[in-house]
Automatic annotation (TrEMBL):
Family membership noted in the UniProt record: Belongs to the peptidase M48 family.
Protein name: M48 family metallopeptidase
Superkingdom to which the source organism belongs: Bacteria
Classification lineage: Bacteria, Pseudomonadati, Pseudomonadota, Gammaproteobacteria, Lysobacterales
Pfam families for the chain: Peptidase_M48
Listed cofactors: Zn(2+)
Length: 305
């Protein structure tokens, strides 16, 4: 065996004894086996999307929620929430309550579409929503149902329907366990890094192998999470009697608003605005059907106060 598989320009490494190269291969193979084992033993099918997802089965729902709660308490200590009796707090809480009430029926319906049974994972959530004073047009929902809306989102949302679309999107991230999926993803990345270090590769070689292993799909992976959250969130908003059509002008405004300082949740990992709006338009007939099926009392559009 003359050539070092990871040689390339690294000529000095090629001078090492061939035996070392072989050991390196065995180490890599062992780690690849471990990564494959981790991958296959932690696959499950998400009832909302019908897609196969990677969630560490050793991470139970309670742990995940405890982590969400801890993060939430830290955030609330740093960024003091608005008075719960303030008008905007009451509006946001009322929207959240309407959305949360429809989680079960929407999950059941989406699961049926994929020939699956609902997991009702979120029945143990301890939902809570706070409004945080901030210029950011941002919102989040942590595992376990702890949510926040930043006041900077209010002028971008403008209407309660649009606010419901954003909050539905955030709730969907928690329902779809995207946080747990990202953690499993990070674990795989760590396995890859450990493999690289253990086999004696230098950082340049490690990076090459990582990208060959598909590490580069992290960004599109995040995008697919956004697309999923858009769909599930839109169905939630529609089922809760909000007007899903408000999603289109909302994301247009969001695109304009994020031109300056891009807030965390709506930054570059999100689909480009054109694609997102096309996706939402394609989902609109289904959303309107959900509205007809699950909304008992549709009212007119109300402005955010
Ligand atoms: Zn998102």
């Amino acid at each position: 065996m003359r050539s070092d598989p990871f040689g390339g320009q690294q000529q000095q490494r090629a001078r090492r004894p061939g035996l070392f190269g072989n050991i390196r291969w065995w180490v890599l193979l062992a780690f690849a086996g471990y990564a494959a084992f981790y991958w296959f033993s932690n696959r499950s099918v998400d009832p909302y999307t019908g897609e196969s997802v990677l969630i560490d089965s050793s991470l139970d729902a309670d742990q995940e929620m405890a982590m969400g709660l801890q993060a939430y308490q830290e955030i609330l200590q740093q960024e003091r929430p608005l008075d719960p009796n303030a008008q905007v707090s009451r509006d946001v809480r009322a929207i959240a309550e309407r959305l949360i009430r429809k989680v079960d029926v929407v999950e059941t319906s989406l699961a049926e579409e994929h020939g699956l049974k609902p997991a009702h994972f979120s029945r143990d959530f301890q939902w809570e929503v706070n409004v945080i004073q901030s210029d950011q047009a941002n919102a989040f929902c942590l595992p376990g149902g702890k949510m926040a809306v930043y006041t900077g989102l209010v002028p971008v949302a403008q209407t309660q329907d649009a606010m419901a679309v954003v909050m539905g999107h955030e709730i969907a991230h928690a329902l779809l366990r995207h946080g747990a999926q990202r953690m499993a993803q990070q674990k795989l990345t760590q396995i890859g890094q450990m493999a690289g270090a253990a086999s004696g590769m230098d950082p340049g070689q490690q990076q090459m192998v990582m990208s060959a292993m598909g590490y580069g799909y992290l960004l599109p992976y995040a995008r697919s999470h956004e697309t999923q959250a858009d769909e599930v969130g839109l169905m939630l908003a529609a089922a809760a009697c909000f007007d899903p059509r408000e999603a289109i002008p909302l994301w247009e405004r969001m695109g304009q608003a994020s031109g300056g300082q891009a807030p965390l949740e709506f930054s570059s990992t999100h689909p480009n605005p054109g694609t997102r709006i096309q996706n939402l338009q394609a989902l609109m007939p289904k959303a309107m059907e959900y509205r007809q099926r699950f909304c008992e009392t549709a009212g007119g559009s109300t402005a955010m106060r």
